[in-house]
Design brief:
4 helices; mainly alpha; 92 residues
Length: 92
């Protein structure tokens, strides 16, 4: 393998590592906000979902107003799509 090939492989590897690090950081942030929402609900806060709503709004990921919870889960989980279809629902 030539030095140029090795360098190209290293660049791709670095890009993959960067992507994985970014995904881990975003997952960690989402998990922290979800856990904060659960803790807020347990503490009796009046609007515990504000922790998630703020993050999703910041990312432009708020669900459409007419979305159903099952439809949103089904978009991410193929098995859930089958269950939703069998129960008469459907992902929006």
């Amino acid at each position: 393998m030539s030095p140029a090939d090795l360098a190209a492989r290293e660049r791709v590897g670095c890009r993959d590592c960067h992507t994985q690090a970014l995904l881990r950081a975003e997952y960690g942030e989402l998990l922290a906000h979800a856990r904060a929402a659960v803790a807020a609900q347990r503490a009796g806060e009046s609007d515990p979902l504000i922790y998630l709503t703020g993050l999703l709004e910041q990312r432009g990921q708020l669900p459409p107003a007419d979305a159903t919870p099952m439809a949103l889960v089904a978009q991410a989980c193929p098995h859930t799509q089958k269950v939703d279809a069998l129960s008469g629902g459907g992902a929006r």
